[in-house]
Each structure stands twice: as C-alpha cells, then as structure tokens.
Amino acid sequence: MKVPVGNFIIGKEEKEAINKVLSSGRISEGRFTKQFESEWAKYIGTKFAVAVNSGTSALIAGLLALIYDKRFPKIKPGAKVITSPVTYIATANAIKLAGLEPVFVDIDPNDFTLNYDQIESLLIKDGKKQICAIIPVHLFGFPNNMQRLKEISHKYDIVIFEDSAQAHGSLFNGKKVGSLSLLSEFSFYIAHNIQAGELGVVNTDDPFLYRLIKKIKANGRMCDCAECLRYKGLCKHSKGDIIFEVDPRFHHELIGYNFKTTEFQTALALSQLKHADEIFRKRSFNVKYLNSKLNKYKDLIQPPHYSKNVSYLAYPIIIKDQRVISKRSIRKHLEERGIETRSLFGCIPNQQPSFKEYHKIYKDLLPNADFVGNNGFYIGCHQYLSKQDLDYIVKVFGEILNGIKK
C-alpha cells in the first residue's frame, strides 16, 4: 500500500523505550505503567487513570465498577445503557458482557454524534427507571455535545461514560473529551492517534471508582496499594488494622478479570504522548488539506466535517448515492491504486450478525445510522502522510470522480 489507513514508524525513541523496559528486568506492570497513568491523567485533565490491556477491557472494567459501586443502584444487571449504533462493536459488546442491555439511538450523519432529542424521548416515555447510563462515542475524534448530555444526565439521574477510544486530544468547549463525565475510556490500538499496539485506559476524578477499577483489572484483588504489592503486612486502606493472613496479592473480594497490561505498551505510549500535540496538528492539517481539494465533489461524496477541535482518527467519507457510484466500486479503485480503505463499522443493531436478535427491533428506526453504515468508508489521515501522499490521494479521487461527473 502506498497510502495505508494507519502506520507506526519505530524510530530511535521507540526503540530506546523498549530497551529501557528490557534493561529494567521487569516487563509486567511497573514504573513505566505508573508513569504513563500519571501523565495520561494530567494530559486529559482528570485526577486518575488506570491502564488496562485494551480499550474493550477499559469499557468492561468501567461498567463493572459502576455495577459494583452501591452509589449507583440503577446500574445493575439487565439495566439499559444508551449508546451509538455506529461505532466499533467493542462498545456494544462491553455493555452486553457487563450484563447490561444496549439501547441504540440514531446519529447525526455529519459527525456521528448521538441524537439528543431521541435520547430525551426515550427517557420521557418509559426509560427513566430502566435506563441507567449513556455511553456517547466520540467516533473518529468528533466530540459529542457534552453540555447537552450533562443536562440530560442531571435531569434524569443517569451516568455518562465517555467512549473516547478514538478521540485522543479532541476538545469540547476548550476541555479534552474524556474529562467531561464521571469516567471515560481510551484505546491505544495500533491505528489510533496515540499508538501502543494494544492498550486501554479508564480516566476518572472519582477515587472510589479508581480503586474499584484497579481491583477489577487484577481479578478482583482486595488491594493493590504499594504496601500490599511489596509484602504481607498491614494495609492502610483496609477497614481497621487488619493484618492479612494471606498474601494480599492473592486475596480477592470481587469477581474481576485479568486486564493488566505490560511495560512494553505503556513505555511506547509514553514515547508517543510526548508528541501528542504534534500528532493532533498534523492529522488536523491533513484533513483540512484533503477537504480543500475534495469538497468540489460534494455532490457525490461527503468529506468529513472539519473542526480545529477534532483529533482525527481517520478520514471518513460517505457516498451520497450508490446508484451513481457504489462503495464497493470506489473502494476497489482506491485499493488498486494503493490507497488502503476500511468500511465504516456498520449500524450494529441492523447490520452486525452478532446482534441479529436486534434486527427486527430496530428495523427502520435508525435511518441515519443505516445510511452511514451502508455508504461510509474511510482512508488514512495519520501523521506519517507526506504532502506527496496527500496529493496522490487527491489525484486518484479526481480520476475516479471526474469520470463519473462526465
């Protein structure tokens, strides 16, 4: 591929980060993970961050923490969680795997954000007692209107859990997404804005949720404070002056998972985090440049909405009318010319086989999501693209679309 959807160039800095891990003699979670959690929390603007092995794990751990937390009695197995129908399937999977029930609302086809009026309609109708949370997805980096969602949250007493997996650094009203709700999740998958191969994080300002998530990610370990991880002894966090008769690392009070990560991932993420603002600017420039050249084809395709506040994961394109040009055809032409493409994620309750039991329920209820799922695809806009790469993209699109216009 001349122009891949994503790329990760292993440079001197990345190699040094890995070598530091190897030289330390410890590859399980240690000082690099602790440093990354601290610096990531500071970057996003929250008090705490917990590193886990993937964005999916971060979603599950966050939801389980809310279920275990007795301050949120509405969040219990079987309760309903509103989310987006157009996103990577991990969001809906995590809701199901946590024992909750996803409820899908339609989206704005211009920026993939939730339909807030539809959310309120659901809550007014009969969902106030059944719906316990909203997971807005900042897809491709586009931030949801968190002010509107906060108003809904306060009015109906429901929790907001931001899925910020694809929005590292995106801003809403001057603040980074992921800092605008009770808790949030990020993914550092290889194709994302900040890359570490496989890594996820949960951010929060809430100290109780922070400790719960740390326990859940370690198979429900009773405590993982510094004292407990070093030796069998007095734990200052336990109730009363209890001296454990067993190693506290193997004393468990919750049903949890092994969601721990490794020093390799967090060391790589640290090296990338140093350049986060530069990555943001470069991706933003690439989207703005491509739009300036491709907007002339707006009658055929819908380029992504441009905003200086969006940290773009990719360059999504919606085909206006597949009777004029099909998604299959345009992707085939692009791939043949070396421009890698990915189909948009699809409308989960109507187009994903794993959610086939939802097909009848949501038939005709999510027109925008269905249209975007059927007609959307994306190409890369990552920081490794050169001006030559961008001009090549424009040239190939021109060859395809000018032929159609004639």
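The above is record 1. Record 2 follows with the same two-line structure.
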Amino acid sequence: MAVVALETTVVVTALPTIAGELDRLDLYPWVFSAYLLTSTVTVPLYGKLADVFGRRRVFLFGMVVFLAGSILCGLARSMTELVVFRAIQGLGAGAVMPSIFTVVADLYRIHERAKIQGVFSTLWGIASLVGPGLGAWLTITWSWRSVFFIGVPFGLAAVVFFICFFKERVEPRKVSLDVAGSLLLMGGLTALLLALTQGTEGPGWTSPLLLLLLAASLLMLGSFIVVERRAPDPVLPLDLFKLRVMSVSSAANFLSGAVLFGVTSYVPLFVQGARGEGAAGAGAALTPMLVTWSLSGFVGPRLLLRFGFRATAIGSTLLIALGAAGLVLVGLDAPPIVLYVSMALFGFGFGPSTSAFLILLQEAVPWSQRGVATSSTQLFRSLGGTIGVALLGSILHVSLTGRIAASGLDPSAVGSLLAPHGGSAASAAEMALRAALGGALQPVFGLIFLIAAATLLMVLVFARDVRLTRPA
C-alpha cells in the first residue's frame, strides 16, 4: 500500500513540470484520467476474481502490472506515451488496493480492524507525506522521470514478502466470468470521459462527435445494467444496491472522489503555475492535507465505533466542505496560511470518511461478496475522480482559453509557467499569464466546493437509518 501511496503523491508534484517540458498542457487532465479510468473500470472485475480465486493471486498480478507501468512511464518520450503508460499503471493499481483492504477485512473483526485500519492509515499518511517533498526534490535535482522509478524496488520487495508470508485457503467453485459486463462498463466510461474532454475542443459542447460519444456511453452503460441482471456471476451484483448501506456508500464515495482528485490535481497546478512557487511549493501545498489525513485516519475507525456511522460521516464531510470553501477564497495574493488551513481541513475530513464508508460496507456483506463490496468503494471513488478531473479540466481549458484570447496573450507560453524552479523575477507577460491561469482555476475551485456541499447534504438526508451490522 505504501508503494501505491508513494507513487501517487510523488507523481502529483511532478506533473506540472512534465506538462511544461513535454509542452502538452492540454493533456494534463488525461495523465490523471487515464490512470483513474483503467483502475476504476477494472476494480469490480478484480473484486470478483478475488472472491473466486483468492486475494493472493489478484494482488500479485496487480502489483507486477503496476510496476511495469511505472517503469514505462519513466521511459515515456511524449505526453501521449505517458498517458498510455499511466493507463497500464492504473490496470495494476486497480487490483492492489482492493486486495489489501479485503485481506484486512478477512483477518480482523471490526473492533480489531479499527486498530489495524488506524495503522494502515498512518502508513498511508507517512508514505503520502514523504511523496510530495520527495517528488519535488527528485524533479529539481534529477529529472521528473526518476519519480516513476522510486517505488519499483519497494514494489518488488512487497511481491517477495507477499509470496513468502501470505497464505490463504480458497474453496474452489465454478464461475462464469462476466467479460461482457466488464467490457461494456469500460467502454461506457471511456466514451463518457472522451465526451467530457471533447467539450473543450473544436465546436465544444455542441459538436456532433460529443453527442455521439454521449449516446454511445448511455447505450453501453444501459446495456451493462441489462447484462448484469442476467449474468450468473455479475462483475457488479446489482442486488447489492438494494442495501441502503451500499447506495449511501457508493454515492458518498463518488462525490468525495471528485473532490479528492480535483484537489490533488489542480491545487499543485495553481501553486506552481499561477503563484509561481515551483515544484517545491506544489509539494508543500499538499503536505497539510497529508499530515492531517494521517492523524485523522488513525483515529477515524475509533470514532466510528464510539459515535456511530452517521455522526462520523456528517462530521467528516462537514470538514471537507469547509476545506473546499476555504479553497474558493485562495487567490494569487492570498496569504499562504489560507491555502494551508484549507488543505488541513480536507485531511481531517477525508481520514474518517474513507474508513467509515469502507468498514460500514464490509460489515454489511458476507465473505463471498466482501471482495466486490470492498472494490466498489474504490470503484465509485475513482469513478467520481475520473469524471470530476475530466469535467474540471474542461472548465479550466474553456476558461483559460477565453482569458488568454481576451488578453491577447500567447497561448503557447503557458507551458513556461510550469518550470520546476519558482521564485524568479517574472516579466509583465508572464505575470499576465499567471493571472489568467489563476483566474481560470477559480471556477474549478468553485465547482469543487459545490460537490463537497452536495456530499454533506447527501449524508445528512440519506444516512439516517444506516447502522453497522454484520450478516449472519
């Protein structure tokens, strides 16, 4: 888990530099979205495979693919290649994280798991805390390519440890893999993501291609629902959604995923590109969130047992909404403390909310469905992040293009704002570009706040009768 956490946060602070060096800011959202898309659409299939063939095989396969993707990313020669290799990396990540949390749920009952989840959250927090600073240092000292190689030795060690020390007994049973459902889900989500990206190009949101993509997405996702109802072993059993727990958890994870990935994607871009603080500043901006996430993640499961699910969920989503509100107030001239406090509030909220929705769902289903249920939390969080990052990227592109055109600036010079070193004296043209980028990011932060507020409202309204219960 530390390998995936480290790789994710190391890369985040390097991406503005990568976009500037490879001169493809237009593909900036796709570096996130390609990873999120492949990790999202494969998660249900991996969850089903883990329930059928065991967690061990799925984990080992996923880690090997993840490491292969990391190496390829470090060797990428263009932004297009990087997007493709990030997609391969995501194929592996989609198996790793659900397998880990499913294993934890298998080994420990809820009171023990509250302590273990705290340990894992601390581990995640430490790895995430090291990541931004390490990514900035590697980018400045060596090259952005080194950030993709840093986790490879540790990932190989994890594979060896898992082979040697994790044993499980899996009862063999016949299964019919839901290949059709998996392909329809992947195709539908891909078409939707392409449609969101297409809205920023050419004729924009009224283009025939966009409408065609949306129609294809609706057709495939509709067909996916039909296939799942008839499949003997569906990749995502729709009967699970009859549980109020599943519906509430899925909706909350979807919305909070959009907030989380929106913040981690566009706050570094704002700090490095608009405020001119370089890669080190981008890493420092994420640090308060990662520190407080580590602290709150440790106590989050204990709060869940002490105060119950609804109180924990309301308190944590309220903190996320307050963090998003503070982000709206962050301008080019705002004191850094405003940004740091906002990011700290995000961390205090995400820690308890993540563990609350995960443990809640694991307690509501039997062992034979725990892999699917656990993977669904990542599915909907990543799905929200995938769609959220693409939609926010579309808003950024439209807003930035309009501001640059209105100011008569050179759009090709935007990449120069993303140099890894910050703090140097800027020309008048560069200052105008920074102002344009900062202004274009304001509606992005505004939408993040609206999504966070919707998450809080959803929990207030629909989580009244949700309880922690384990099936007999």
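Residues 2-166+235-462 form a domain with the Growth Hormone; Chain: A; fold (CATH 1.20.1250.20).
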